Structure formats: C-alpha cells, structure tokens
Amino acid sequence: MPAGSERIGLHDIQASADTREIALQRVGVKDIAVPLRVQTRGGGFQAVQATCALTVGLPKEFKGTHMSRFVEILAEWQRRNMSGACVEDLVREIRDRLDAPAAGALIRFRYFVDKAAPATGAVAPTDLDCSFEGDIALDGTYRFTLGVAVPVTTLCPCSKAISRYGAHNQRSLITARVRCRTGTCTWIEDLAAALEARASCPVYPLLKREDEKVVTEQAYENPKFVEDVLRDCILYLRSLSGIEWFSLEVENFESIHNHNAWATHEEWVG
Fold first, then answer.
1. With b meaning 16 or more CB within 10 Å and e meaning fewer, what string describes 162-187?
2. Is the dihedral of CA 189, 190, 191, 195 positive or negative?
3. Which of 44, 134, 167, 243 could form a disulfide linkage to 159, CB 3.0–4.6 angstroms apart?
4. Among 251, 248, 263, which residue's Cα sits nearest to residue 154?
5. Does the pTM exceed 0.85?
6. CA separation (Å) from 208 to 128, 199, 212?
7. pLDDT tens digits for 100-139?
8. Residues 6 or more apart in contact with residue 154 via CB below 8 angstroms
9. Is 256 exposed, middle or buried (0-12, 13-18, 19+ CB in 10 A)?
C-alpha cells in the first residue's frame, strides 16, 4: 500500500458539522447509467439500460452526504428483478444506509413490448420510455409514481370536415404519470395499451400493405383533436380504483404546421 494511503486517520469532511443552519431537501447523484432487470407482466424480466437519480434529504447539521454509497446500492440492485413494488425497498435502503430523514429514486428506462399488426398479425417490438419514481418524505410517507410515454396516431377532425377527400394526421405522444394507492399496482403493458386506445389509432412497428390499409381507415373513422385524446385519457384514469393521482400530457407532432399542438392536465382522484 503506498505511503499515506492508509485508511486510518483519513478525515471524513462530509460528516463534519455545518453551521449555516440550512437543511437541504435533495442531494445525491444523477444520470447514472446502469443495467437493470425489470419484471414483466408475464412473470419474466426484461434487461434494460436505466438512467438513475438517487437522493436523500440532508439535515442542517451535516456538511454533505456519502455519494459513493448511492453507487454501491445501485450495483447491488443490478442483480435483482425490479418492479414498481420493489422501488420502495430500494428507497428505504437508501434512506437507512445513508442515515437520512428522506430519500428518493428516479429510474428512467426504455421498455419493449411485442405488438401485433392489426391485419396480418406480424409481431415486432415497440419501445416505450418509462420511469419508476419512489419517494419517502420526512414524515415517513412513501409514494410511487409510474411514468409511461406512448406513441399514437391522431387525425384532425377539422381537416376531415372541411376537405373533399383525405385529412391530415400526425404521430403523437401520450405521456402519463400515475401514482397508485397503497397495495395496488399498474403494469406498464396495461397502461400503455389503454392510453393508445384513446387515440385515433395505435402506432405499430411493423405494417404490411393489409395492415396499412386498416390503420389508415381506422384513423380516418376516428378523428381526434389533442384535447379529445387528453379528455378520453382523463376519463380512463379516473375510472381506475387504484389510482390516487395522475398527470397527462398529449403532444401532436404536427404534419402541416411548424409547431406542435399540446395539452396537459393533472389531478388527485377521489
């Protein structure tokens, strides 16, 4: 061991006292890229590359927290199958090992779902941007939020109404964040399927000619403004007994404008 590298006598500056009397709500690490295994609805797991942010609340008497412990914890969790329910265990471990009054974890990842084309049944994977977010507040209350972004198709009702033939459509994105009541959960696959059903038509990764005909006609017969999609998604989430809070965002990547149409909403349920 090189001279001067002995652990005995190394001063821990982070654990020293701070006299400014300011507690910090969140300190930690962000943008940590790690491989994780996410549980699927079918009982297996999917290997994903995740980007994580881990935080704790820092009491006013401490100068800093031990950043390396966050990375150690994540390294251990790489060997486990993770679901939304597991995030609470992760956050509690962070809080306990860093001796903190509050803790949080935000895990973003791309999740793949097999999707069959509407006519031929041809199957290919489609990717969804997802997130698991868990927080333990100062009073010990735990909250979990699932995030899913779902690509869809929308067709403009106004364009259809004023045109002798045809109507313009566009790819759109529905982004939902849902907070489940204690003891309940929502699977990524179920939430994504339900949200895309509120659009003019789903987006498919693989389409043959027969499928493209179905998709084109389905969208044409189901025109929706961005506001229509948002309201229909709101009604759906309100109908779920396990949801206590949600936020929604719908964005149309317009095909005939150099700007996007956008609508957003959030509310507590019940």
1. eeeeebebbebbbbbbbbbeeeeebb
2. positive
3. 167
4. 251
5. yes
6. 22, 21, 6
7. 999 999 999 999 999 999 999 999 999 999 999 999 999 9
8. 169, 170, 172, 199, 200, 219, 223, 224, 225, 226, 229, 252
9. exposed
The residues, any chain, with a CB within 8 Å of residue 105's CB and separated by 6 or more, are 52, 53, 54, 55, 87, 90, 91, 94, 132, 133, 134, 135
- CA dihedral over 78, 84, 86, 90, signed as positive or negative: positive
Q: Which of 20, 32, 28, 101 is nearest to 66 (CA)?
A: 28
Residues 246, 237: contact at Cβ < 8 Å? yes
Count other Cβ atoms within 10 Å, centred on residue 88.
17
> In this structure, what token pair is assigned to residue 151?
């690509």
**Domain edges within the chain:** 25-268
pLDDT digits (tens, 9 = 90+) for 232-251: 999 999 999 889 999 999 99
Structure tokens at 194: 């339900």
Class of domain 25-268: alpha beta
Tokens found for residue 109: 């990842």
Distance from CA of residue 41 to its chain's centroid? Answer: 16
Please tell me the number of Cα atoms within 13 Å of 90 on its side-chain side: 33
